[in-house]
TrEMBL record:
Gene Ontology molecular function, alphabetical: RNA binding; rRNA pseudouridine synthase activity
Name the UniProt record assigns to this protein: Pseudouridine synthase
Name of a matching Pfam family: S4
CDD domains tied to this protein: S4
Family: Belongs to the pseudouridine synthase RsuA family.
Keywords: Isomerase, RNA-binding
Domain RNA-binding S4: 3-70
PANTHER family: PSEUDOURIDINE SYNTHASE FAMILY PROTEIN-RELATED, RNA-BINDING S4 DOMAIN-CONTAINING PROTEIN
E.C. designation(s): 5.4.99.-
Organism annotation: Muiribacterium halophilum
Top EC group: isomerase
InterPro entries (alphabetical): PsdUridine_s_RsuA/RluB/E/F_cat, PsdUridine_synth_cat_dom_sf, PsdUridine_synth_RsuA/RluA, PsdUridine_synth_RsuA/RluB/E/F, PsdUridine_synth_RsuA/RluB_CS, RsuA_PseudoU_synthase, S4_RNA-bd, S4_RNA-bd_sf
One GO BP annotation of this record: enzyme-directed rRNA pseudouridine synthesis
């Protein structure tokens, strides 16, 4: 089955689609010895594809990692402002993409993979994959605050509504709350909290689907074990069947 080159390269974990489009335009991609153009499709079972003179193997083993992102790192491979990125925190022999961006000051669980199809599945809001955040806000959160935080509202031209909001702990001038979402609109939690009169002072993603931060120190990463990958596969299979 033929597919666009940039999609195949992304799904194989070689590079992002945007990077693939650029090197195609730069003339660094060859299909069966001929220079490729944007929009070209190939059948990886039949055609030969070379990038920068290197033949691409589309039968690369899938790789999954989780990272406990500290604040002060950005989710990108290269930042034009020169800020440290999450990819400075670990080494990998294969190209990995992150799933579920966390902003510069946020922290917690980030999934990394070379499986483009799984990344897409986990990212799409319609698939309903839960993401749980532990959030410290200024002020005391009461029942009225919970109702306000739980409202459906429009953010970045999309209707968003938390799956659940609950209080974890109340201090003198602040509260820790849990917020569960199924989408990842830019700075969504910060905007929800600010619209409800509570400024966020700390934001930690503690769960993404069946994966948690348990046993993973800040700044550390690890590969997923077989059972964890199987849980992700089962989520995807269940969604396809439905």
């Amino acid at each position: 089955m033929k597919e666009r080159i940039q999609k195949l390269l992304s799904n194989a974990g070689v590079m992002s689609r945007r990077q693939a489009e650029k090197i195609i335009q730069d003339g660094k991609v060859l299909i069966n010895g001929m220079k490729a153009s944007l929009g070209d499709k190939i059948d990886p079972a039949v055609d030969s594809l070379k990038v920068n003179g290197k033949k691409i193997n589309f039968n690369v083993k899938r790789k999954f990692m989780i990272l406990n992102k500290p604040p002060g790192y950005i989710c990108t491979h290269a930042d034009p402002e020169g800020r440290p990125t999450i990819f400075d925190l670990f080494k990998s022999r294969v190209y990995l993409s992150y799933v579920g961006r966390l902003d510069f000051n946020s922290e917690g669980l980030v999934i990394l993979t070379n499986d483009g199809e799984m990344k897409k599945f986990l990212s799409l809001p319609e698939n309903g994959i839960e993401r749980e955040y532990k959030v410290k806000v200024r002020g005391l959160v009461d029942e009225d605050s919970i109702r306000e935080l739980s409202k459906k509202r429009r953010i970045d031209r999309r209707n968003v509504k938390p799956v659940s909001v609950r209080v974890l702990q109340k201090n003198k001038n602040s509260s820790w709350i849990s917020i569960v979402l199924t989408e990842g609109v830019n700075r969504e939690i910060r905007k929800i909290c600010e619209a409800s009169g509570h400024l966020v002072s700390r934001l930690i993603r503690v769960r993404f689907g069946p994966l948690t931060l348990k046993g993973l120190k800040k700044g550390d990463s690890r590969e997923l074990i077989y059972d964890e990958i199987k849980k992700l596969d089962k989520l995807k299979e269940k969604r396809i069947k439905n």
